[in-house]
Write a sequence for this structure.
């Protein structure tokens, strides 16, 4: 997964720096021996023009008092920490314990979301893809970063990175291997390209040994990455993974 990890930047620090100097984001190269040091691609150390433009506009709106900084932070915090991937995990766990719900989820994800109280912006056209022993689905947005926000929260930085967006379709098996997911050659990999109209959620396989767990305990196992398709679910609670 290190292949797609970008340098984390605090949102407020990013906003402040973006309007003063893009050069402020030049980062030190990774130390020899670190996981980043083995990468063969160059980090994008300066934010894209679009990102800079968005941040500059945001900063101006805040400075002019047209937008409340606290309100912006509250919205971002909701998607980052409160919604996160927990809504998606609830749907997955429900599908694992309730076959009828799973059928409805695969047929009409929007309706199945509404059943458990989920429906909001950018969640109108979500399609759920079921992983199995011989089929593995993985989601990308080759154009930008389309993502099912209402059920997965904000997309991870690597999901928006050029290497992931380009290589996921060219060499999905190799990309998954870099995420630590080595699939057997006889497993078909299906890559789905999200758009503004259709966003995908992977229904991962229920892990072996989880038969005794409650729906709530099952939901705690489901990671964000497993619902993008770059990981499988195991018996390690999502919150205890790095
Ligand atoms: Fe997109």
């Amino acid at each position: 997964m290190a292949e797609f990890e970008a340098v984390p930047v605090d949102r407020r620090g990013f906003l402040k720096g973006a309007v003063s100097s893009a050069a402020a984001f030049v980062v030190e190269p990774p130390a020899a021996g670190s996981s980043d040091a083995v990468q063969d691609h160059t980090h994008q150390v300066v934010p894209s023009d679009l990102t800079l433009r968005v941040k500059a506009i945001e900063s101006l709106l805040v400075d002019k008092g047209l937008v409340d900084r606290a309100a912006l932070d509250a919205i971002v915090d909701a998607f980052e920490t409160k919604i996160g991937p927990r809504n998606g995990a609830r749907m997955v766990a429900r599908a694992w314990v309730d076959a009828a719900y799973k059928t409805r989820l695969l047929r009409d994800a929007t309706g199945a979301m509404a059943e458990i109280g989920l429906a909001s912006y950018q969640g109108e056209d979500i399609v759920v893809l079921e992983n199995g022993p011989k089929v593995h689905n993985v989601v990308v947005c080759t154009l930008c970063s389309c993502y099912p926000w209402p059920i997965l929260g904000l997309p991870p930085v690597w999901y928006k990175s050029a290497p992931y967006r380009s290589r996921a379709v060219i060499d999905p098996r190799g990309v998954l291997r870099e995420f630590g997911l080595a699939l057997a050659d006889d497993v078909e990999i299906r890559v789905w390209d999200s758009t503004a109209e259709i966003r995908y959620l992977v229904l991962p396989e229920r892990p072996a040994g989880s038969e005794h767990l409650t729906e709530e305990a099952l939901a705690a196992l489901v990671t964000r990455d497993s619902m993008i398709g770059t990981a499988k679910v195991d018996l390690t609670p999502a919150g205890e993974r790095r």
Remarks:
- Confidence is low (pLDDT under 50) at residues 5-44.
- The beta strands are 126-130, 135-140, 188-193, 199-203.
- DSSP finds twelve helices and four strands in the chain.
